[in-house]
């Protein structure tokens, strides 16, 4: 990033909000800002269609019916004809954006291919303030310019003397004043003026703050004669005005970096085998070299003399520590010192690290094995103690059992599904007693047992068959009880709905439509509400889950959804909800209402927002789905779809960027998007319906998925690290 003096408002877009706030309270005549161009008045390409919803005096976009490859050079010609001079920022040669200067005004132009329209492109103008203005020679080429330091490098078409005359006049015209050696040394005692430049000339200038200039340091102007008759020009901050001693900034990859820097990047971590840091420092090479020598010495690195190269414009040094080697390279580019520091662990250190890891892994496995033995021994002792409390007494069959195989008379928590052929119950008798009961009672009924290898004191598996039917039964000691489960065709009953009554010990009966008149046990009953539940649910429920849709890091839900299952008739549950929701001020609406013996779908209005209730039947129980939306919270977070539309929100908890292609749109989802610390996640509005979409993780193949969304609904599509997709209704 460009260097900005501490305590000064940064240039460019970050300065604009402050400028506009100050302008609001200023007199009308004082609101003009000659340093910021009004981009609305700039020329546009032919066929431009402005995006007026986002137009500001300092920023605007328009689309044109040409691709970027044609729009970019056409824009350069258009702005050049309007007096704008194009330049490149230092170390920004690969940028696709264009930068221009006209007097003291700056302009950045960026290009984007229109989404879903390969034949169109979007051109964006953004005004930029030039806080350290210097004149460009007329018709100069190869212009490299940084408006904040300042820095200017270019080739002027005129001879040296003519170029010098032009610059002297223009520099004075915009407020630069020649700086003498006496004035310089009064403030910078280390200032050394070297006016003699081989085949060229050098001069120094200073500028007072104000008129768009901020805390200007003196600059050094150097002109060089070229063999082609042209003049090489460089304007940069005078070396004596740059920091002579550099302070340390935050580390990168565990390696030191100085400040101020123009750019910085790193690879690896503090414990990586290989680490690298590359920085461009706004300082002279000697000051940068002194910084690294000091910082590396303080970290117990030793500078090696072998292979050392130290010249005024480049440095290569090697360092070593107890476990690593390092190569430090310094060079000059523009007015910056470019640094590369690469470290590598030695072979001996790698071998020692591998040994330490192997020893740590072996110790972990040894400790884990010892702990496992202790746990197993303690569990075995506990199981033996619990087994001693289980009765081995002979069991008698339960009278009037409606199951196709006998039940022991002490069976608890009986669950029988004759349609699927499943039976389960608990018992206070031992595994041995359960096995003896079934072997004896089933043999007398003509069932044949097939031997099983699992026949132990704490677990037994038995397989029985008769007349083309079969079932498997497992009895396992689970703490102080024995859990029995069985399944197979031998347990399927032709009239499963009537047989589902099982017995009074806990078997559950079905009351689905089509059965005979239910018994007193399955008749409608008055259900009580579970206390402290965010959404009402009967306390007599076998399953309950409550989900919420909300932004990560927020406590305000957009939607709550209750899923539950209740062993009661559908009518009992319907009566319960009409009563409980009425107590909460909910009002039932007739829109889309469905009330059938085995299905209910109702809509409600509530003080907090719309809600839906769906009831159904499954495995002898009534299933519940109750969902409520909170429009106020959703609107505040801007997740409410447009009227008649649906909305998709995308999140990515993986470590790689992902792209989703849906309905002829491609959405990029950055790694970590949608998390608590991330900005607003990507969102799109779509017509309600069923959509196929393709998901692609960086470096991986595309995967096809499908999602169905309804009108007024907002769904979140969360992408996992492996490319798995979890769709969740958020609103």
Task: Describe the SSE topology.
Blueprint: H1 16-24, E1 49-50, E2 59-64, H2 68-81, E3 85-87, E4 98-102, E5 105-113, E6 121-129, E7 141-146, E8 151-156, H3 160-173, E9 176-178, H4 181-187, E10 196-197, E11 200-207, E12 219-225, E13 231-237, E14 247-248, E15 258-259, E16 261-267, E17 274-281, H5 285-298, E18 302-310, E19 314-320, E20 324-333, E21 336-345, H6 347-388, E22 412-417, E23 422-427, H7 431-444, E24 448-450, E25 459-466, E26 469-478, E27 481-487, H8 496-499, E28 543-549, E29 559-566, H9 570-583, E30 587-596, E31 599-605, E32 610-618, E33 621-629, H10 631-636, E34 646-652, E35 658-662, E36 665-669, E37 683-686, E38 689-697, E39 702-709, E40 714-719, E41 725-729
Parallel strand pairs: 34-40
Antiparallel strand pairs: 1-2, 2-6, 3-4, 4-5, 5-6, 7-8, 8-13, 9-11, 10-11, 11-12, 12-13, 14-15, 16-17, 17-21, 18-19, 19-20, 20-21, 22-23, 23-27, 24-25, 25-26, 26-27, 28-29, 29-33, 30-31, 31-32, 32-33, 34-37, 35-36, 35-38, 38-39, 40-41
